[in-house]
Amino acid sequence: MTQAVFMMDQHILSDVYSDEAIQQITSMIEVYDTVITKDNINDHLPLLQDVSIIFSGWGAPVFSAEVLDYLPQLTAIFYAAGSVKQIMSRDLLKGITVSTANTINARPVAEFTLSQILFSLKNGFRLQQSLRETKQFSNGIMLDIKGIYNQTIGIIGFSTIGKMVCEHLQNFDVDLIVYDPYLAPEMLSAYSATPVDLDTLFQTADVISLHAPLLPSTVKMIKREHFKQMKEHATFINTARGAIIDEAALIDVMGKRPDLTSLLDVTDPEPPETTSALYTLPNVLLTPHIAGSVGQEKFRLGQAMVDEFMRYQANEPLLYRLDIDTFDRQA
Description:
The protein is α/β, with parallel strands linked by helices and 331 residues long. The protein has two domains: 4-104 and 295-329, 3-Layer(aba) Sandwich (Rossmann fold), CATH 3.40.50.720; 105-286, NAD(P)-binding Rossmann-like Domain (Rossmann fold, 3-Layer(aba) Sandwich), CATH 3.40.50. It has helices spanning 10-16, 19-28, 41-44, 65-69, 102-121, 124-134, 160-168, 198-204, 224-228, 247-256, 297-313; strands at residues 4-7, 53-56, 76-79, 97-100, 151-156, 174-179, 193-195, 207-210, 235-238, 261-264, 284-286. A seven-stranded parallel sheet has the order 7-6-5-8-9-10-11, sandwiched between helices. Strands 1-2-3-4 form a four-stranded parallel sheet, covered by helices on one side. Helix 5 packs across helix 7 (160-168). 37% of the residues are buried. Residues 116-291 form the D-isomer specific 2-hydroxyacid dehydrogenase NAD-binding domain. Belongs to the D-isomer specific 2-hydroxyacid dehydrogenase family. It holds the Pfam family 2-Hacid_dh_C. One of its GO terms (molecular function) is oxidoreductase activity.
């Protein structure tokens, strides 16, 4: 009797679930012999009546009401990736345990963000460009560099990633300010951070890092007036989603304010059109969506779901269970 099945892009599976992880799974539960994908799901659904566990990840088929009707024994889904909103709805999750690797995938994003914050405060991006163009080297002690000490970091969105960035920054002598409309101010006390409104954050921060979820209410939440208010020589970092900002406004302001810097790991569309000024503006630096789990980091996602399944089997508390109550506010 088949009790578990992999449902995801077959070509990605081996990048997320290591051989060791798959061996752990097959030693605990019988697994269907075919990976279910978007392309073959209709051929296999009638054979999955006994499946109680789904292991999934990027490229998974949509878990629609029709699909779930073929899975009457389903009790749990272990999703080795971030948000599940693209493949399942809140109402369909009732009665099913869903755990995701969203928190695990947040770790490399927070680490990447920290690196960008620190490097920008050392003026590393501008100095690298200048050295390449002028081949004139000056000792950093003599240069006009902000440095990290006593600088103000603005975090937009006290999400899982935003919170992790704040945790990392506890090791540095910086001032933290945070904007999040859903945040209770007392939640920031452990981080020595100050809640502020969005305008104040843009006016005050030396580095601004965006970590809000992409929701209908946050589309183009960051507008022209926000970018225009940025401090002299401030840096804006986006590792969230490109659609949260007014990209045309950012391009316009960056063109008029060469003192500012934007570090964009995400854009809208992604990638940008080949004619986009994002490629040519000297104070805009693009990276191709590398903040999240890449390379060996992806195996951490699959292993987290294997470990979560072991807790599920042992009736132990789950670490990464999806919170249905906050589903609508999640990315």
